[in-house]
Structure formats: structure tokens, C-alpha cells
Design a protein that fits this description.
Blueprint lengths: L1 E5 L8 H12 L7 E2 L7 E2 L4 E7 L7 E7 L8 H5 L5 E3 L6 E3 L9 H5 L6 E2 L6 E2 L5 H4 L12 H5 L5 E4 L7 H9 L15 E3 L21 H4 L8 H12 L1
Parallel strand pairs: 1-11
Antiparallel strand pairs: 1-10, 2-3, 4-5, 6-7, 8-9
């Protein structure tokens, strides 16, 4: 099980971050720290973050890419290998990587081993935190079927996040990855991440019709005059002012 994230569709609104924080503060494991949020020294932990970059391709205009990042639930997860207590483990039935917080001693070795920086030490609970794929939602029969997906997927207003069985070639997410050329994050690390990213589509280039026509006025269609000659009160006022 894993996520497919569409970098072409993500608008960087952080709705997934807020939904993740809310759900995982109230349910699975120790609550996520959120201390002095509006003070001088706010402290907190998050399982999902969004990084925004300006990318300039070799051909075409520059574009902003919003890059969500959380645990990738790698097939060969180094965080599991280095954990001295076995607190970090990968489930056999669905491949989800979790942390048994009662066994975690807060040594931080798993965070050092993760090449993606996807783990965070909770500053209050002193245990390692990471994305759980909302394991307490996806198998919860007390929830409506539409809600049996990770909170970030359910919340995304742009439909940029997809959830499903990436081990099944016939699943919707697998077909989406195949159609859009989905890719692994940092494949050179050899971790075989389960989560996949869909690349941004190329943007249309602006071709100026005149030499000095290099700027696009996006409001021009809405600012075109409705009529050449004012009518009614405005017409009367215009004529009156002309006589002054």
C-alpha cells in the first residue's frame, strides 16, 4: 500500500499537512507535539511537509513545483535495519512501515539512516514519529468507505494525492503511475520506495507577436470596454463635463 503524489496538480495549500496533524494528534500513538504555536519559540512535529521550489526547465518558462514529502514506506527500509530495539518495523501484510512507540528509546538512529528526512523526533514525547498511512483509518470498518483512505488523501482539494495497492499492476494507482511515468524519489539510494511521484507536465511557452509584446496581461479579457459610448446617467454626465 502506498501513495501516488501528482506534482503537476499539487498547489501547495498545506491542507494535507493540517489534516495529517489533526488526525494523528487524536488517534494512533502519542499525540504530535504542538507547543507554544503562536509564541516566540514554537515546537512541534509533523508527519507530512510540503517544500516549494522554482524549477527552470531547459525548454519553456520557469514554474513553481510544490513537493509533498513523508515516509515512503521503502521495501528495503534502512530505518528498520538500524533500529536497535526493533521498534521500527515493516508489516508483512501491506508493507507499511511503523514505529512501536512503547519500544522506541528515542536514539534517533532511524532518522539518521533515512535518506529522505522523513522521520521526526517528537520534542515532547521523545519518540520517533513518521507517516503511518493512517493505518487506523484504512482498515476501520466503522468509517464510511470513502473515508477509509489516509487523511491527507481524503482532504486534498486538488486531487493530487492517491492511495492504493502499488503491488497490484491492475490497481488504479499502478495504472496512473504507468500512464504518467511515475518515478521513485532518489532511486540511487537503493531503498526501493513504495510511494511514487508523478512529474509536472510541461507548461505552454508564450510566443510574443511583436518585439515589445513580452508581457502577458491576464486581466485584459476582463477589462475590455463594454461599449465605446457611455449611456444613461454616465452619458449625460460625460456630455455635461465636456461643456465645462
Amino acid at each position: 500500500m502506498g501513495l501516488v503524489i501528482d506534482l503537476d496538480t499539487c498547489v501547495g495549500c498545506h491542507a494535507c499537512v493540517v489534516a495529517c496533524k489533526g488526525w494523528n494528534t487524536e488517534n494512533y500513538g502519542a499525540p504530535l507535539a504542538d507547543t507554544d504555536a503562536y509564541g516566540a519559540e514554537p515546537v512541534g512535529s509533523f508527519l507530512n511537509r510540503i517544500h516549494s521550489y522554482e524549477v527552470t526547465p531547459q525548454v519553456g518558462p520557469a514554474q513553481t513545483v510544490h513537493f509533498p514529502k513523508s515516509c515512503l514506506h521503502c521495501e528495503d527500509a534502512p530505518c528498520v535495519t538500524v533500529c536497535p530495539t526493533g521498534a521500527s518495523y515493516k508489516r508483512v501484510e501491506d508493507g507499511i512501515v511503523l514505529v512501536n512507540e512503547s519500544d522506541c528509546i528515542g536514539c534517533g538512529l532511524c532518522a539518521w539512516a533515512c535518506p529522505y528526512g522523513a522521520r521526526e523526533m517528537d520534542p515532547v514525547e521523545k519518540v520517533m514519529k513518521k507517516c503511518t498511512l493512517c493505518v487506523d483509518r484504512i482498515y476501520n470498518d466503522n468509517l464510511p468507505e470513502v473515508d477509509q483512505v489516509p487523511a491527507c488523501v481524503r482532504t486534498c482539494p486538488a486531487g493530487a494525492r492517491h492511495f492504493g495497492d502499488l503491488g497490484d499492476a491492475e490497481s488504479d494507482v499502478s495504472k496512473l503511475v504507468a500512464e504518467r511515468g511515475g518515478f521513485d524519489l532518489m532511486p540511487e539510494q537503493g531503498t526501493k520506495p513504495v510511494n511514487q511521484y508523478l512529474p509536472p507536465r510541461p507548461r505552454d511557452a508564450w510566443v510574443a507577436e511583436e518585439e515589445d509584446d513580452t508581457q502577458i496581461d491576464v486581466l485584459a479579457p476582463f477589462l475590455a470596454p463594454v461599449t465605446d459610448q457611455p449611456k444613461g446617467f454616465l452619458g449625460w454626465l460625460d456630455k455635461t463635463l465636456e461643456r465645462l
